[in-house]
Design goal:
Rav1p_C, elongated, 1319 residues, WD40_repeat_dom_sf, RAVE complex protein Rav1 C-terminal domain-containing protein, WD40/YVTN_repeat-like_dom_sf
Amino acid sequence: MRVLPGRVKSDPRSLAAAEWEGDHYIAYVSGKALVISSNTRDLIQTLYHDEHLQVLAFDEGTGKIAVALPSCIHVYSPSTNFSKTAKWESYVRITLENHDGTVHSLSWGANSELLVAAAGLHLWDVRTTDAREIWHKELANPVDLASFSYDATFIASTSTWNRFVKLWRRQAYALGEAEFDFSYLPHPHVVTSLVWKKPFHREIAAENILYTFAADGVFRVWSPLDPHEVYPFQLCTLLDLGGPTFQPTLGQPSQVAHGFELDAVVSLIDTRVFTVATEQAVLHVEQDADSKQQLQNLVDIAKRSSEVLLMFHSSGYLSAWGIENIRSKSKRTVNVFSIVHQVELDWKFATDCGGPRNILTLASRKAATGLELAVQFSNGEIGWFDVSIEDLLDPTSSICQLKDRISWSGHLEPINHLKRTARGNSLLSSSKEWEHVLWRRTLQDDMPYLERQSLINISGEGKVLKTLILPNGWYVVTLHPDSVCLWDCRNASAVELSRCPIEISAQPFSLILLPEYETLETVYHVFVIDKSRHGTVFAVKIPRLRRRSSISSIRSRLEHSYGTITEHSNFNLPANDDIAMLVPVDPVGWNFTVSDNLDSFNRDVAVSITPKGLVQSWTARMNTNSKEVQWLQTSSLETLLTEPSLIGGSSMHKVAVIDSQKTLLTIWDTRNAQLEHKFGFDEGEYVRDLDWTCTPDSQSILAVGFAHKVVLFSQLRYDYLNAGPAWAPFREFNTISVTPHPIGDSIWLSDGALVIGCGNQLFIHPKNIRPEDANDPSVQSLWTPAGHDSRMETIFDLVSRLNGPLPPYHPQFLQQCVLAGKMKLAKQIVVELSYNTKDKDMAQEIESTLGISPEDFHNIDENDLNDDGPRLVNGFSRPDFDQNLCSELVSQLKEVSIPYLSGKEQMSLAGIVESMSEEWLHRQSLDEWGVRYLLFFKHHALQKSNFYARPSGVSFREISWAFQSETQEILVDLVTKTYQNKMQWSQARDAGFFMWLKDPTALKVHLEALARNQYMSKEERNPVDCSLYYLALRKKTVLVGLWRIAHWNKEQGATMKLLSNNFEDPKWKTIAAKNAYALLGKQRFEYAAAFFLLADRPKDAVNVCFTQMNDVQLAIAIARVYDGDEGPVLRELLEEKVLPLAARDGNKWLASWAFWLLDHKDLAVRSLMMPINSLITKTESPGVGQIFLADDPALVILYKLIRDKTLKSLRGAEKIPKGAEFEFVLHCARLYDRMGCDVLALDLVKNWTFLDTSLKTSGLLDLRMALSKRRSSYIVNDMVDDFKIEDHLPNQPEKNNLVKPPAAVFSEPTMDSFSHFDF
């Protein structure tokens, strides 16, 4: 993570550095924030206050930081709390009496004594939290500069525009006491800075050497004399920094006329820093003679405990002097000597920062250079530079190159909004005080970073409502209450180019840019829509930048080229309902086109939502002929979320909507009008922001912002078999550890970098996943399984792992191969996987394709599913697929880790292989329908035994396969044997047994066996457990016999007495019904349904099962057994309950099964492709987008298999609207792609055979005639009763006034007459 921690005040006293506990720390003031960072440029902590901060001071001895506010002074103390990084906590708050609200300076002394310079001098003892003032002195003029000596013996102070330094000498040395007298140190000009010499170690007694610098350009060194003298300090030496010669003198200083520049900055490299930097230079010295000689000179200087004075000229030059023998007790004369003179500094971005104001020199034992410079520039930026002390003080070089490592900048006020260009290369950040900063994305150390490009100061231009960056990143448009402005941001300070008045009658939604063609004269069209759906278009005309123009040449232009913004046209958005929100679509795709035609292929421009939850996507295009904006609604879906609080759309046809409570996230696919994900957050976690991006291969990522964190959601592969989620959170960025300020906004940059605006700071999270991120639980849960060498380096890699193409040995791919009828391909994959996992080394180097060529996925003949002959690969024979191979592979999967598979996925793969082994045993007995059901039923049973399966049992997809099978006798035998011939209702429901079994006699036989198993399942044989089933079979006598032996049951007497009556009598039917209602009141629903059957009211019994027990299968089983498949009870249940349920849930498998059972085979085919609501009457129009699980690519397989199965189903296929089958196949191909089964999607579109709809009527007649002559084994004639030839003949003309045709004359037939026979 990179941080832009905020702009620093231009006052040098707002920046401080200190070494504490062996680590270097930097602290500075930025607006209302105190920013603390480490010497490694990592942000540690940000502390916010209610008022703007003024100055600060950092105590090296205790690590305490004092910061001044207008009303008080806050002192913070470090606390490690057993962690590696220190954190600062509030220690004490100091309030000054008779304070005018301005603190000019803070300084620490020994023993935690804090000097406060305001209108007077205040000395506070802050050793404990009970801080107290121990000395106070009011002065005639407010103190501007004040510095405490390191041993707390002297105070040096001066006021504004004063040439005298007042030196305070301590008289009382007891702890908690202080008395001072003073003397003066006169200067000929105004004193601009003063600093005490820093001791080499804090344990060494301070020598109290004072350095002063005045406006005359003279640097002075003052040393102490006898402390009992009236004037305790003497001038040791002075250095005229502006003179033509650079020799020290004790005479009169040179004047300003010598050419000294008053805006130059002086900095000291103290002895401690100089020694460490020299040591690092020795360690990394080059082996040439010049380097060794230069290094020897530095070592000699360091041995003399010298300090180095640096002067940075505003023109970009550096001069340096050495000062030696600076000791109060030294008898030697202070020696000042020149080291380098006016060496040019090569620091790239410093020329745009307004010149340095303060420079801190820091030693670094970690960096090879050994020396770091923290430069405080006048524009509020802090620049970090690395430089070798050898290069910095090289007198033979004319230029010194400073390696700029990083620059710190940001805002002074909290950021509340972020905008970016479409490509994500430029960013505009806006604060609450209308401070707008334009940033350009750059790279530093191969990591994304933001370089400040321009500052837009709009404080005097009125309130800013909305902002927009033009695509080139050099111009910005701002919307005000009464105007729209165009800004040129090519220089450090933006310039207003043009302003256009505007009248806004309602709240504007956003400034949105229309997609444009590139022209020689660049013209953009920007529009704004208000809440009344009225919009205004503005034409923005700017010069076209040449591609070869460099940034520096553009910025160097003194005059700004023309640029205009004018009102172009007005429009009304063609929406029928009021709009609650309208936001621009995040252009997250790297590639998009602007079409000549306004159609659904154009990129979405905006997405809107109504107060009732209707989401609409819009695209627009500027009509160059009529000069009007043309709008087209590309999609519409109902979310049923009233009063939504937030919406965000992407150009990848994804929309995220937040409910009114701000705690429910819903993600929608606008192209298919489907709900893909619903996620509820904890109470108190309110969603505040939504941002979209995508990977280079168009896989979407959603950033969901909260007050103190941003959670990233990734697309997951569709998992229809396990009903898995389509989205999941995979990474979390938390800001509470570094700043307490809530997040204002977040946005994606290009290449997957996420920028979070928090307070006045910008946090830049790259796409890279660092090694320490592996400890993040959200990342750890999605990490590559243990034992694999392949690791995910970026979030794009991670998302591709979660949503990219699957290897062919993935369990989902194998299952889809089976569903698609590619059993031979699935077996080939299993054989190759078994061969490649014989040992751990081979498993780690396994190819993702298993060496199977792409043609094998599409060209394998699947007509013969039982062809299991040997196969040669690269000249080596592969074993046959059999039960032994499957057992061996299952054992290998339990011991060897397979790449790209998690542990759970490997267990699922082992279950599929076991299921395929079971299928191999019965491959000669089952048809392809039965093979599909058996494999998934066995897999479900294995997963349930390992507690992995869904509690609902097999889905209606598997039920549909078994229902269409012609080998149900074998399936019945296999299912019952799976449960040891003791199948109970819960097991029958898991298998869907009574849904797919078609033989009425078998239904009753197996229900009776089930009733017996239910009765025998417990030690206490309770007839209540089996009453419903025996009464459904109309076997009351058996039930009476069971009650007769249930002596232990307290209900035996009353039940026997009731059952002994004749229930053909209406009286006893009524009594049985009353008992049923009484049992409903006691919530004994199953027993109540049994009494409804006793009362011969099967409809009520079925309703109880369906409604109260929520058991659809039980209701259908009771109806089928009690009344038969042709009875009114089942028909009414299917028509009034099951089909509306299927329509509500979008369950096309259930709908097709129900229509087929009702003998509406034409509707069974149509329901697979058309909306179920259009085929039934008793249903509510849902309107709301359905969950994505309602779609399933296997539907296209079922459609293909039943389309030509009977004449009725063929007739249903012919009634499907033109083009619907084409769209359906493409949709299923997209679903395959979304599941990670790309090769199956390609196979589907490559090998699909469409129904020839050109032979609608004649085709049916031809089939009818063919079936009358020869029994077809492929298409069943099921239209005997309702098929009439005359219904399918074309309309005949009226027989009135018909003319008799002429006599027939024989003519020779042509070859065209035989075209129908395919000769």
